């Protein structure tokens, strides 16, 4: 189907804006945040608390969203999208609230360090440390340490996938799922069909992605490291099940689907869905566009199924 008319209108309205690589970093960050304005009526959850936890480079901020009703609740550790550079836990408040309310789970949103001030692997170190802290303090948060998943969108999806990979390889914690919305999983490839088809004119561009990678990596050789490009991991065996949700008109579409296929080929439960008419970052239209609401609902259903007690767990492969 064609690009959704609301998204098309937004792209036309943004045509006069300079790309991020042509702006000073502070201005680029301010411009990016404009796409995620605070909601006048935030989605209701049981409680929201900002706090600081120990991180690899000192105190690290997190925001804890607790659902209504008695616990212990399952827990989702969430990493916001940003191109590894731009956004923060405030820009993704609405997404986290919807995930908390819809999945009935505690959501811990992590304010990991951004590039270029803190290049790879700083963000991955922060995300793994935060996930381990959550596992150790789940009961304190009202959560269940045996039901923890990681989640993220775009660059945050990359960080969620890498956290699952590092948790497998570096002593835990055990995770029951990884939820990835239009994730970065590989360094840009000129042979990628979605890069060729949607590299310009659809919001996130090929040039923009290459700029993000230049900010994130200290050297080009790091692009082949599995902790930067998780699609290049040696083997998916032992990773938790994944739900990968992608947009039709997105340069990252093919690498997200390739990541899910790589897991499925290794016998890991990996489900994927492509949302027609959507472009990269379409979750910010939740509450406005039906496909964005569907992407939230599909993710919440998948999480609910992953969080069921193991003996009774019945996963539907089309749940997302």
Description:
This protein is of the alpha/beta class. The chain contains 9 helices and 8 strands. Strands 1-2-4-3-5-6-7-8 form an 8-stranded mixed beta sheet, with helices on both faces. Helix 3 links the parallel strand 3 (73-79) and strand 4 (106-110).
Please give a quick description of this structure.
The protein is α/β, with parallel strands linked by helices. The chain has helices spanning 5-13, 25-33, 93-103, 122-141, 155-169, 193-198, 206-216, 253-265, 290-306, and strands at 47-55, 58-66, 73-79, 106-110, 143-153, 177-181, 242-249, 270-279.
* Rg, nearest Å: 18 Å
Order of helices and strands: HHEEEHEHEHEHHEHEH
Strand content: 15-25%
Based on DSSP secondary structure assignment, what is the total number of beta strands? 8
Tell me the major beta sheet. Answer: 8 strands, mixed
Which descriptors would you attach to this protein?
9 helices; 320 residues; alpha/beta; 35% helix
Give the topology, please:
Elements: H1 5-13, H2 25-33, E1 47-55, E2 58-66, E3 73-79, H3 93-103, E4 106-110, H4 122-141, E5 143-153, H5 155-169, E6 177-181, H6 193-198, H7 206-216, E7 242-249, H8 253-265, E8 270-279, H9 290-306
Parallel strand pairs: 3-4, 3-5, 5-6, 6-7, 7-8
Antiparallel strand pairs: 1-2, 2-4
Helix pairs in contact: 3-9, 4-5
């Amino acid at each position: 189907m064609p690009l959704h008319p609301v998204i098309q209108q937004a792209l036309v309205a943004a045509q006069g804006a300079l790309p991020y690589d042509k702006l000073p970093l502070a201005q680029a960050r301010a411009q990016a945040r404009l796409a995620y304005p605070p909601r006048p009526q935030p989605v209701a959850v049981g409680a929201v608390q900002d706090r600081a936890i120990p991180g690899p480079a000192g105190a690290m901020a997190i925001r804890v969203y607790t659902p209504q009703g008695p616990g212990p609740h399952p827990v989702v550790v969430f990493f916001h999208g940003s191109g590894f550079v731009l956004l923060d836990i405030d820009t993704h408040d609405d997404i986290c609230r919807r995930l908390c309310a819809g999945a009935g789970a505690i959501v811990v949103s992590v304010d990991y360090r951004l590039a270029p001030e803190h290049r790879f692997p700083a963000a991955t170190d922060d995300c793994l440390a935060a996930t381990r802290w959550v596992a150790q303090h789940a009961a304190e948060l009202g959560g269940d340490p045996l039901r923890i998943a990681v989640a993220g969108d775009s660059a945050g999806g990359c960080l969620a996938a890498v956290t699952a990979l590092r948790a497998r390889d570096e002593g835990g914690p055990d995770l029951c799922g990884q939820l990835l919305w239009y994730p970065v999983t590989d360094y840009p490839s000129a042979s990628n069909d979605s890069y060729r088809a949607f590299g310009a004119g659809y919001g996130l561009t090929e040039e923009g992605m290459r700029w993000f990678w230049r900010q994130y990596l200290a050297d080009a050789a790091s692009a082949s490291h599995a902790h930067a490009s998780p699609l290049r991991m040696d083997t998916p065996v032992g990773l938790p099940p994944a739900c990968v949700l992608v947009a039709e008109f997105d340069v990252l579409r093919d690498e997200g689907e390739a990541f899910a296929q790589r897991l499925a080929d290794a016998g890991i439960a990996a489900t994927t869905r492509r949302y027609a008419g959507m472009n990269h970052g379409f979750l910010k239209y939740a509450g406005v566009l039906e496909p964005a609401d569907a992407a939230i609902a599909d993710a919440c259903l998948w999480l609910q199924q992953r969080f069921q007690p193991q003996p009774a767990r019945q996963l539907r492969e089309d749940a997302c």
